Amino acid sequence: MPRDAWLIDRQNTQPSRDFFVNTIGAQATQAEAIAEAENIEDLFNHLEKGGVLMRIDPNVRPQMFHGATISSEELKQLRRVENIVRKGRVTRLDTDNIYFGEDSIATTPNTMHIDCSARAVPVTETYDVFKGDTVVVQTVRTYQPVFSAAFIAHIEANYDDETVKNELCQVVPIPNHDTDFLVGLVKQMKNQMRWSKEPALREWMINNRLDGFTKLVRASEDTPPEELAILKRLKEAGPKAAANMPKLMGEVIQITAARQANTANT
Prior knowledge:
mainly alpha
């Protein structure tokens, strides 16, 4: 295992009324965690304690986040695997050894080796979505490529001004490091704020089957007290989270710079 990862609890990602307490409750917990966190380590402690994120090994602090989603039962099954090797990435494989640079562990010709280390979307650069006759489809909402593609298509079909189209389609980068959880969230929040200024666009999102979350957070006379209480938590935590975000993002910048320097040195 080259890097341990933070994982998303699957029950917190279901865009239906049946999972409101889990899904919107997790968003409220996430906002509260950002509002209360003293630093990045404290933020992830809050997110894990609140059930927003999980990890396979509670004794190893992950430094990766790819937006991978997992159920609690699947997590139990993964935790049954005890023989875990943490020596970095595999550099070479032969009949008797698996190599990690200068280090190695033994293997056999009868052992099946499966490479599960590749990123699903190996994209690190971002571009303007609209540029002349070219449309570069990218994520405009964190790890939601299908919604993002539909959103970009809608913008292309309903807006003419290229500057406005790119304002509405600010790219949310594909996450890699743990700190990218926060980076993507900041970008997504900025997009949501911009979208909210477009009444017709907001109405399209409410009726879009690929976006079940916008409709969920709309209270009505039929909204039960338990759900209203969660919406109240989300509303109250939002401004506090936004106020604390610059401090946390300042630390993210420092961590990113240190990682880049370390990579350059190695």
